[in-house]
């Protein structure tokens, strides 16, 4: 799916673009209705046989509750139907494997983790609502794919930003006052706008400055390009206030978000700065071959004299599997020179000649 957006906060344009991604209104699928009815009967059987306290918001789960629920009402039953409904709701294939639908050990865990989108214990009631109400479906999907635990927030790496501003000032002459930058695996886009802020803070905010944000997930892409969080009004409001100066008519740093795998092949136009925060060596990208391919691709997209930066705040035990020394070795293997930075790792590309 080819998808790219120049950011905007115009609500009418956002709604028009949203129709490219999601199916509006009732789904009206008879086969889906029949499957929901069967799930309702299965849940009624579970509820009638379950001897422990029934789920309600705030219930403290025990291993016995989880185990018995999974035995009587396997999470896989509900997962299959939620996945089917969401796929019918999208004009693309949503990446649900990393969501609560797959990481929840039981239906009770999913109820706890996906509140307040889930208010009733019976999944059939929720599925019926989602099938008939496009706006409810939109909020449910955005909450599922844009949860706070993904680390989406501004200023996650302040020391990295300070280092980058200093680096940009030091290379302003060589860059001719212009810089091309990429935030690869940008998630919901906070780091992309932070990168644009760093460029402006370094005084490189003239014509020709360009910042790209790329991600593999269309809903993340849409959120970043439009400060769009329909399940979280406070987050959307704060996001819009933060990025409005960067999207004002007099802003001269051009921004664009597009769909792309972090391992995409190098293109003709190289970048002076590439960020890849929160991905390399973590839970989503740590297998040796895939990790090496991602770093090879990122290094190949750097312009001579450019810099690649990668930090994280939630890899924890993954650092034992892929320590910083190993990441630096992978940078060296791609011809980059590891740099001392206050957060994460970095590699610079030698200037030609």
Task: Explain the overall architecture.
By secondary structure, the protein is of the alpha/beta class. It folds into two domains: 26-132, no CATH class; 158-349, Vaccinia Virus protein VP39 (Rossmann fold). It is built from 16 helices and eight strands. An eight-stranded mixed sheet has the order 1-4-3-2-5-6-8-7, sandwiched between helices. Helix 2 runs antiparallel to helix 4, helix 7 crosses helix 8 (134-145) and helix 9 (158-170) crosses helix 11 (190-201).
Keywords:
2 domains; 8-stranded mixed β-sheet; 353 residues; alpha/beta; Rossmann fold
What integer value in Å does the Rg equal?
23 Å
> What is the percentage of strand-forming residues?
5-15%
Number of strands: 8
Output the helix-strand order: EHHHHHHHHHHEHEHHEEHEHHEE
In the CATH hierarchy, the third-tier topology of the largest domain is known as Rossmann fold
**Could you list the spans in which at least 5 consecutive residues all have pLDDT below 50?**
none
Compute the number of structural domains: 2
Which CATH class of the largest domain applies here? Alpha Beta
Separation of termini?
A: 39 Å
Structural class: alpha/beta
CATH level-4 homologous superfamily of the largest domain: Vaccinia Virus protein VP39
With helices defined by DSSP (H or I, 4 residues minimum), what is the helix count? Answer: 16
What's the architecture of the largest domain, going by CATH? 3-Layer(aba) Sandwich
Instruction: Please give the share of residues in helix.
Output: 40-55%
């Amino acid at each position: 799916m080819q998808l790219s957006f120049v950011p905007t906060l115009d609500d009418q344009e956002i709604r028009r673009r949203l129709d490219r991604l999601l199916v509006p209104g009732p789904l009206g699928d008879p086969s889906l209705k029949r499957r929901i009815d069967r799930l309702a009967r299965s849940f009624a059987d579970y509820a009638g046989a379950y001897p422990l306290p029934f789920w309600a918001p705030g219930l403290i789960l025990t291993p016995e509750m989880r185990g018995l629920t999974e035995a009587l009402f396997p999470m896989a039953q509900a997962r299959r139907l939620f996945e089917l409904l969401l796929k019918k709701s999208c004009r693309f294939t949503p990446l649900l494997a990393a969501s609560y639908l797959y990481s929840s050990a039981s239906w009770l865990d999913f109820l706890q983790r996906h509140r307040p989108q889930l208010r009733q214990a019976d999944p059939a009631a929720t599925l019926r609502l989602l099938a008939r109400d496009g706006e409810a479906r939109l909020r449910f999907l955005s909450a599922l794919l844009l949860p706070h635990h993904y680390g989406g927030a501004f200023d996650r790496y302040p020391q990295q930003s300070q280092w980058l501003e200093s680096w940009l000032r030091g290379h302003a002459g060589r860059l001719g006052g212009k810089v091309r930058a990429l935030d690869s695996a940008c998630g919901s886009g906070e780091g992309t706008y932070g990168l644009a802020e760093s460029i402006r803070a370094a005084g490189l905010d003239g014509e020709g400055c360009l910042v790209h944000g790329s991600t593999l997930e269309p809903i993340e892409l849409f959120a970043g390009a439009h400060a769009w969080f329909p399940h979280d009004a406070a987050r959307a409001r704060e996001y819009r206030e933060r990025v409005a100066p960067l999207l004002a008519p007099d802003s001269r740093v051009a921004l664009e978000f597009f769909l792309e795998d972090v391992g995409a092949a190098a293109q003709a136009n190289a970048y002076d700065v590439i960020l890849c925060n929160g991905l390399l060596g973590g839970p989503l990208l740590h297998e040796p071959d895939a990790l090496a391919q991602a770093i090879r691709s990122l290094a190949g997209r750097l312009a001579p004299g450019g810099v690649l930066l990668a930090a994280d705040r939630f890899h924890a035990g993954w650092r034992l599997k892929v320590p910083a020394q190993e990441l630096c070795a992978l940078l060296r293997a791609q011809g980059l020179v590891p740099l001392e930075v206050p957060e994460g790792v970095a590699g610079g590309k030698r200037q030609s000649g």
